[in-house]
Design goal:
The chain is an alpha/beta fold. The protein is built from 11 helices and 13 strands. The strands form 3 sheets. It has a 6-stranded mixed β-sheet with strand order 6-7-8-3-9-10, sandwiched between helices. Strands 2-1-4-5 form a 4-stranded antiparallel β-sheet, covered by helices on one side. A 3-stranded antiparallel β-sheet has the order 11-12-13, with no helix packed on it. It is globular and about 65 Å long.
């Protein structure tokens, strides 16, 4: 379990990135920090592995304040995946994945074997093992980054907008792969994104942030969609417009789901009670008959 206890971060230039932030992140779940630029989401993520130290408050992992843990030792025990993968360009794929195990004293042959196994885990063909990062596509590089993040079998995996630089189709595939990995491995994943659709797809717990790390709403995707906390959240998630505002519409061949702009959004795969438009309007909003 990760817990933020009234943390604050003020930079030397006076910028107040995070102000009095408290949160519990349950073990073996995916928690997503989502918000616009400047809301403090990456600052909060980096407090967990001490890439950023809070100006006040504490971050605890399983009850232990990380401020009392050697930062290098801490970082080597926590998986970290960043945007653009952050791979070492002069090292082959297998050696990139094996980097942290080698730093922690694992014999080279064992580290490389583990790296090959992780390539299988993240769906990357072993034929790429001896290639350099520049010889891979963006999506393949991100898979290498995820494999490297898992190389020491960490309990915690931090992911800082890892899929933000790839095209939408590859991004969707990588999201699906992460869901599969989490189902199989059960890590404590903390994921940062500015994309609410990505947050809802990946998160067991979604934290919508305002400027300064203020929590606008915390909950499951279903809870947030069903009951946005305020107008800020409703606007941020797009409630009431576009593909968030879904309704059932009858067609000659049966009912379909359409979005707020009348575009077909899906089909129904189970029984549903279809009501006409008049019955769907709350009674106090209907006109006189």
């Amino acid at each position: 379990m990760i817990e933020f206890r009234s943390v604050r971060k003020t930079y030397p230039d006076g910028t107040n990135a995070v102000d009095d932030f408290s949160l519990v992140i349950p073990s073996r779940t995916t928690t997503v920090f989502v918000g616009s630029s400047g809301c403090g989401k990456t600052t909060l993520l980096r407090m967990i592995n001490r890439m950023v130290d809070p100006s006040a408050g504490a971050v605890e992992i399983d009850g232990e304040d990380v401020a009392g843990v050697d930062p290098v030792k801490l970082r080597r025990s926590i998986g970290y995946v960043m945007q653009n993968a952050g791979l070492l360009p002069h090292r082959k794929v297998v050696d990139n994945i094996a980097t942290v195990p080698l730093l922690t004293g694992v014999p080279k042959a064992d580290a490389r074997q583990r790296a090959l196994e992780l390539m299988d885990t993240v769906g990357l063909d072993r034929a790429f093992a001896n290639r350099y990062p520049s010889q891979l596509s963006g999506g393949q590089q991100q898979r290498v980054g995820v494999a490297r993040g898992l190389a020491v079998d960490p309990n915690i995996l931090l992911m800082d907008e890892p899929f933000g630089a790839v095209d939408p189709l590859v991004r969707n595939d990588l999201q699906d792969e992460l869901i599969r990995l989490q189902r199989e491995l059960g890590k404590t994943v903390v994921f940062v994104t500015h994309d609410i659709d990505e947050a809802f797809k990946l998160g067991d717990q979604v934290v919508i942030l305002k400027k300064g790390g203020e929590i606008a709403q915390l909950g499951t995707p279903a809870e947030i969609l069903a009951e946005p906390a305020d107008d800020f959240v409703a606007n941020f998630i797009g409630a009431g417009r576009g593909r968030r505002a879904l309704r059932v519409e009858q067609t000659p061949t049966g009912p379909i789901v359409v979005d707020g702009e009348g575009r077909a959004a899906g089909v129904l795969t189970g029984p549903v009670q279809v009501v006409d438009a008049a019955e769907a309007v709350p009674q106090d909003q209907r006109g006189d008959a």
